[in-house]
Amino acid sequence: RGGKTIGALDVAFEGRHKAWTSIPPSSLSATIDSLWSTTSGFNIQQFSPIQIYWRQSLMQGRLRFRLGKLSPYSTFFGNRINSSSLFFVNYAFADNPAVFMPGNGTGLHVSYDLSPSWTVHGGIQDANGMKTTIDPSSLRLREFWYALQVDYKAKIRGLGEGTYRLGGWYVDARPEVNAEEGAGTVLSIDQELGKHVIAFLRYEYQGQGLINPEVQFSLLTATRSSARAGIGLPGPFARLPDDYMGVAVAWGDPADLAIK
Is 257 helix (H, G, I), strand (E, B) or coil? Predict the structure, then answer.
């Protein structure tokens, strides 16, 4: 149907190939002794469908859901300038180093606008999903990743629009890959500082639940907690209005205390 109550089938393909070097930029972290991958992407990946899902809006657009092979990044724990395809390519700024994010797999993401300012997102997804394959058979393991996020959209006089996000995640134990259950919390903020600057702040930690911080969980990534902050400058050049320029800094607390 037309209007804000619409449905659509979305399909996305992606492929990555080697060029000029036997060591892709994403594999340089060990060479320079970095806690994180040097880039998000820039690796070798066969051309394949990475997302196939049905997208539906209801209640004049206030209620939205997606069902199918999904990327968790498309709904949770992002901000306006963290796409490695459009903005920063460094892993620290394009990804979430202290968050376990499953590969693209079968899942359901639901978003509901409580008001023009407040939105709630919830999702459940196969914890064993793989980005480049379509194999829902892993659902029989009943191992899932869960996420909840609350967004507040503000418009501050003299500054502009901003979005303030607080969320949490939990993943079931996966004995077949020797991984215990995990959980963590994420804070992500982006705020316009006038017409020509967008500032962002992101912080996440894992090992404790969002609802009950006294409950301890295993660490599932190489980073226990991480903080990043920076600014983006949209349209820095008159002839390239869609370009961005940015600068940012990152800090991470390794899960392995021996490498601090």
Answer: helix
Interior angle at CA 57, CA 189 and CA 96, nearest 5 = 30
pLDDT tens digits for range 220-232:
787 889 999 999 8
Identify the pLDDT of residue 64: 95
- How many CA atoms, within 13 angstroms, populate the side-chain half-sphere of residue 248? 28
Q: Alpha-carbon distance 224 to 36, whole Å?
A: 12
CA 72 vs CA 166, 193, 209, 241: distances in Å: 16, 29, 19, 30
- Torsion, Cα of 49, 107, 115, 7 (10° steps): 50
Q: Which residues pair with 225 in a beta bridge?
A: 205, 253
Residue that is written with structure tokens 């109550």 in the block: 5
How far apart CA 160 and CA 140 sit, in angstroms, is 47
What stretch of H or E contains 26?
none
Burial of 66 (0-12, 13-18, 19+ CB in 10 A): buried
Cα distance between residue 197 and residue 201, in whole Å: 14
Do 144 and 172 meet the contact criterion of CB atoms below 8 Å apart? yes
Distance CA 251, CA 35 (A): 10
At position 168, the amino acid (one-letter code) is: G
Question: Is the separation of the CB atoms in 146 and 121 below 8 Å?
Answer: no
Cα 99 from Cα 205, distance rounded (Å)? 7
Mean pLDDT value across the chain: 83
Separation of CA 104 from chain center: 12
Regions of the chain with pLDDT less than 70: 1-3, 16-45, 84-85, 208-218, 238, 257-260
